[in-house]
């Protein structure tokens, strides 16, 4: 890992995939933003509660196709610790949603442990959900339960789409996953970047930071550019919280 002038770690894992880490203060006019005219970018709003607000605005680091935007300072260090502690108390081996049955099933593509805490049980999760709704402009009802994930060394999440196939029965639970937000809760010693192979991008886990991206194209179909992976953790551990947002109210 190296760090830019503000101490934000940037990845050196790959020479072909530029890591996100440099800040685009004037992102609206940037070449990167100009490449995404078809997708409305997720712009920052005033964000309450668990997100840093007021005196310490979130910092937009990069925007790319599929409205991908990487952010620093979405969560305070205390928020991160609280979320990790909730995860620690509830961890079990990670599963994926079976597209046909909608059930959670074990799968070799995910080598990690996960927790699915109930929002009603933890005030921090309610504040987080409200902050995400405000940041995205998408009603809180569309959010699936937050998922907290833990990877040990060697742990990874192989390339996959978060959106479901067009005929998946789980689409009845609120349509497809239109947006993913991955929040990074700790600093990974080595590895653990979120990679977007079709975009040639990797996002380094910056504690308190996160990455938003769209999973669907304008026709509501699975967007090929949304393919992504959690690269293997080479050293240390990795904690994230993933928020999937459906097209309609999640049931
Ligand atoms: O671990 C990562 O960086 C990716 C996680 C992910 O893709 C997911 O939770 O859907
Ligand atoms: Fe994913």
TrEMBL record:
Gene3D superfamilies: q2cbj1_9rhob like domain. It comes from Acidithiobacillus marinus. GO terms for molecular function: iron ion binding; L-ascorbic acid binding; procollagen-proline 4-dioxygenase activity. It comes from the Bacteria. Signal peptide: none annotated. Residues 1-21 are annotated as: Disordered. Its cofactor is L-ascorbate. Residues 7-21 have a biased composition (Low complexity). The keyword NAD does not apply. Keywords: Dioxygenase, Iron, Metal-binding, Oxidoreductase, Vitamin C. SMART domains: P4Hc (SM00702). Residues 142-247 form the Fe2OG dioxygenase domain. This is Fe2OG dioxygenase domain-containing protein.
């Amino acid at each position: 890992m190296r760090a830019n002038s503000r101490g934000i770690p940037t990845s050196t894992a790959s020479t072909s995939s530029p890591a996100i880490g440099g800040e685009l203060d004037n992102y609206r006019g940037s070449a990167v933003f100009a490449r995404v005219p078809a997708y409305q970018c997720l712009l920052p709003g005033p964000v309450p509660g668990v997100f840093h607000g007021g005196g310490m605005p979130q910092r937009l680091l990069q925007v790319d196709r599929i409205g991908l935007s990487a952010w620093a300072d979405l969560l305070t260090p205390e928020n991160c610790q609280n979320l990790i502690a909730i995860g620690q108390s509830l961890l079990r081996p990670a599963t994926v949603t079976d597209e046909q049955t909608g059930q959670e099933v074990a799968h070799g593509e995910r080598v990690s442990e996960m927790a699915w805490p109930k929002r009603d049980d933890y005030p921090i999760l309610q504040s987080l959900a409200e902050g995400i709704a405000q940041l995205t402009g998408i009603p809180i009802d569309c959010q699936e339960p937050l998922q907290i994930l833990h990877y040990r060394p060697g742990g990874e999440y192989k390339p996959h789409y978060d959106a479901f196939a067009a005929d998946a029965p789980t689409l009845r639970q609120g349509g497809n996953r239109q947006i993913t937000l991955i929040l990074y809760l700790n600093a990974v010693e080595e590895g653990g970047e979120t990679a977007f192979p079709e975009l040639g991008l990797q996002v380094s886990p910056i504690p308190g930071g996160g990455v938003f991206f769209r999973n669907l194209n304008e026709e509501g179909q699975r967007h090929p550019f949304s393919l992504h992976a959690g690269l293997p953790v080479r050293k240390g551990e990795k904690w994230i919280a993933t928020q999937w947002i459906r097209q309609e109210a999640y049931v």
